[in-house]
Structure prediction request, 314 residues.
Amino acid sequence: MLQFIKKIDFRQNIVYVGVVVIFALFAIMLGGKGFTSTVNILNILRQSSIIVIMAMAMTFVIGSAEIDLSVGSIAGLASVSTAMAIARFGLVPGILAGLAVGAICGIVNGALVAFAKIPSFLVTLAMMGVTVGVAQWITDSSPQPILDKGYNFVFGGGQIGVFPIIIIWAMVFFAFGVTLLNRTRLGKYTLAVGANPVAAKYSGINVKRVRFGVMFGSAMCAAVAGMLYAGRLQSGRYQWGSGDEMNVIAAVILGGTALSGGRGSAVGAMAGAVLMAMINNGLILAGLTSAQQQVVRGIIIVLAVALAKRNNRS
Prediction:
């Protein structure tokens, strides 16, 4: 047993160690407040589900040495677009409206990054501002209720027995992300571009297409996340998804994806999302204010970046 423990690279598996340690710590400190109850564990999984969906796409983005800061704001715009379209035109147009938001944002982000060669940080920072502004503009900053029970049930608000449907969505995206990253050319090409785009180009990989694809996929996953927010909370609001980019990026980095690109783990990103949700849940049960929670999350991101850099150097 000791020999097995010595062989474990705890830096490479920090996210899994973190899940176990944080769960045990909160179980001891907050056991009396129901942290380990079945209801709360399902709540943690429910809270992590939307982050898991966006983290699957963000793994490809960061793995290709890019970044997407607009995922949270795209989710907010998709939620209000879906809600408004359902209210005026019905269920199917509402779903198409949400997906259209992701497609438009993804095409713009992808084209500017891949073909105009503008740094993804600047492109997605601008997109974050644009989508937040548009969402506030078209709604006059007011919530848009969704009264379609079928939509609310399927898109995050329903349960099969005690099992939330939104967790099923996360499991589907997780399986898809793992398969794409580990079993397809897209996954191999993405990491190759992140490791060395010049070498990837001379190896016959279409670097521009890969960069466009990962940015487009990230926006589409963000739009789906926004639609799930709308279904789970039965309304569209521009605030839905606000700050999620922090949790998503932290989850991906903690999961073992290198900030410099070239290495990624969809399984690790999922574990990172659960860890972030567990931390958020524990902090709420501990009675910390929203501002204090933001401070703790910021510290976690800094530590994640530090660990990522140490891993890259080793």
Remarks:
- Residues 44-313 form a domain with the ABC transporter involved in vitamin B12 uptake, BtuC fold (CATH 1.10.3470).
